[in-house]
Write a structure and sequence with these properties.
2 domains, Alpha/beta knot, 10 helices, alpha/beta, 18% strand, homodimer, 5-stranded mixed beta sheet, 277 residues
Chain lengths: 277, 277
């Protein structure tokens, strides 16, 4: 026993109920039922603590540690209220969903933000993504949105679970800081209209270039899904449809790449530059 | 026997020398010694054939096929001169480097382009990347370069093998069409200077924004490596150093994302828009 919490219980059995639960939490259904998700990896756990994500449990296996900073991180997590459990090398390998585990895996409560929770200034800047399918793309999109300084990301008609381990990972912790709301398209559309936020949708099927759209005022950029592009709903309900000019192969730009291009054109214009002629 | 080639020899043994060789070709050293590389997957094999990559051998396993178009692709490959080999489910699984094999894996000769092979018009547009480490990033960068319509990509002081299976895959076949040259930095610099191509390097350590640089004329955009950024050589030998403005976490933009942002600002300017004031 020490001052900040009970001494860790060491788990070596692959049949241990905690090990089994960690494996189950890879499944969306299990996560949703428990209202929990997994945060794996040194960088991710550190980011979660920085962003005040309340880690309930932190599993660690010194056999897998890559550096020397892990004990300090464990202390920090314990002081923030996490319960610590030491795992044997094999037990950790069973729980890890990574190719190369680094010996740290936490469990944290999920959260749900509503549209009304978004803090919007006088000139809102939002990214709306529709039915993104690949967790890696959603994570990359969150990183782009963070770098572009959006007020929030709205995921419409979500296919991918926001708390999928691969979203957590590919977002490099941005999931813990950028406001993300999951909602259905009709509610999002009503929310944007009410606040007089201009809706600019990207699609290959328009002559208008994204650089010619005025992206300076209250703005929501809407991106479609990988496979189907934008739905008829958003194509119809947008104020402007724009395309990104493409040389080369038709599929060279995926949705994550198209998103970052559009977001940074908005950043350019919003810093004072006009749209193109 | 049919008109276009010998009937396939079916391979079932995991000890078959061809199976063993395919596994070995995942290693760079083996690829370099043999002067060969692997093209795995329906989409990749189709793209390779479209782009006149001379497939020497095509291994296929009907047990893994996902659709109904594979026989036509096999015919096409045979007519283009590839030798066909049928593999059992298990033998193919051993050769595949994918999580979900789709039953097609080809072997093709590597190629080497020189700087002098680049076809440059009066207003060259080049991308130079330095020591990129992750094959996935290099593949994504090739896709961006293709979409932006560059005349070529120059990889300086290559760390990642251009013919790494993950570059082939993540480039979605762009590797087969975009001219890529591997060369050392000094030679690349001399090449650019000789042709009076403006060198614009991206780095966080400058007050100048990328949108303020004039990217309209003969241009080489230079990007550093994931871990170390741009080398002192390129920082010193560039005509202008520019940065991308970043909100949020310091590491939200990786090198592939920074590349696509910079390339598409160049595309914008080169279509007639001025740089920012």
């Amino acid at each position: 026993m020490d001052a900040v919490g009970p001494s860790p219980e060491k788990i070596t059995s692959l049949q241990n109920p905690r090990v089994k639960r960690l494996v189950k939490l890879r499944e969306r259904r299990e996560r949703d039922e428990a209202g929990l998700f997994l945060v794996e990896g040194y960088r991710e756990v550190r980011r979660a603590l920085e962003k005040q994500v309340r880690l309930q449990e932190l599993y660690y296996a010194p056999d897998w540690f890559l550096g020397g900073n892990e004990p300090a991180l464990l202390d920090q997590a314990r002081q923030a209220g996490a319960q610590l459990f030491e795992l044997s090398r094999d037990a950790f390998a069973k729980c890890s969903y990574r190719d190369r585990p680094d010996g740290l895996l936490a469990v944290a409560p999920q959260w749900r933000k509503q549209l009304a929770d978004l803090a919007l200034g006088p000139r809102p800047f939002l990214l709306v993504v529709e039915s993104i399918e690949k967790p890696g793309n959603l994570g990359t999109i969150l990183r782009s949105a963070d770098a572009a300084g959006v007020d929030g990301v709205i995921v419409c008609d979500a296919v991918t679970d926001l708390f999928n381990p691969n979203v957590v990972r590919s977002s490099t912790g941005v999931l813990f800081s950028v406001p993300v709301v999951v909602a259905d398209s009709a509610a999002v559309h009503a929310f944007l209209r009410e606040r007089r936020i201009r809706i600019v949708a990207t699609t290959p099927d328009t002559p208008d270039l994204y650089t010619g759209a005025d992206l300076r005022g209250p703005l929501a950029i809407v991106m479609g899904s990988e496979q189907y592009g934008l739905s008829a709903f958003w194509l119809r309900e947008s104020d402007q449809r724009v395309r990104i000019p493409m040389a080369g192969q038709a599929d060279s730009l995926n949705v994550a790449m198209a998103t970052i291009i559009t977001l940074f054109e908005a950043v350019r214009q919003r810093s004072g530059d006009p749209p193109s002629r």
